[in-house]
Amino acid sequence: MTAVSDGTVVIAGMCPVHGDLVVIDHGVGLTSMYFHQRAVTVKVRQQVGEVGSTGAHLHLEMRV
Fold this sequence. Notes:
By secondary structure, the protein is mainly beta.
């Protein structure tokens, strides 16, 4: 799955409520959060444009 924009992974792993989670810092105070992933294929501090794979459901949040 492609991230909304390039950035740096700040969280990657299991979240008790939301399942597998990736959070990307895009700079200028913007982060994107990807919940309910089937597999997390990135690591913290990795520069990315892609975050993992999803099943039938993905929860995407953008935060400023």
